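FORM 7B: Structural annotation worksheet

SECTION A. Query
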Amino acid sequence: MNTIDLRGRVALVTGGTRGIGLSIAQTLHAAGAAVAVAGRDHARAEAVAGGLGERAAGVACDVAKIEEVEAAIAAAEKALGPIEILVNNAGLTRDNILVRLDEAAWDTVLDANLKGAFNTTRTVIRGMMKRRSGRIINISSIVGLIGNKGQANYAASKAGLIGFTKSVAREYAGRGILANCVAPGFIETDMTNALPAEARTALLEQIALGRLGRPEDVAGAVLFLASDLASYITGQVLVVDGGMVI
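SECTION B. Predicted structure
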């Protein structure tokens, strides 16, 4: 139990070309899984897959568009085999306070962050049902648990993703399919690196561990949930926030 071995299993990671998604793809691949990296930019997805080496493929899609999702998953399964681990990481933000948040910004975020997970999950779950096995791991956020000023659309999408996950967990547990969420806190990204010093200090004061998270902190949680160590866990939210929302 000291080493997680995913050899012989196939994973699809949406939003897998940068940041947290890239770290997840690298971590699952290092554990032996074959990994399909999905992103909007096909060339970038293929480049990331090439960097992983064997047992990897790059596919392109806008997760909000079901036709593109179905085509990308078909391509991934043709290259690597049936998807057994789905990681819904793709997402975006369009931040603004509510009175200035227009309908387009609301729809864009909900389509990518919530509808995207619906599209990918519905596409792979029939195969998982037939095989009576599968892992669905959705990347939510602590913002979906506590809200955040200027992010009503993002918070709604991430809270909705938690409810979606719990429903899928209840519906398909009898078919051997486990569905869980990982809810990251504030992670070292280009956005957090650009914070002014005062804002960064104020943020760190809210975190019990006194540091921002790293992409690999989130990837480790995903690896655990994808492994046999988590075979009796479903419908749960694993918070990875350094103790920010204790």
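SECTION C. Observations
The chain has nine helices and seven strands. Residues 163 and 235 are 9 Å apart (CA to CA).

SECTION D. Sign-off
Analyst initials: ____
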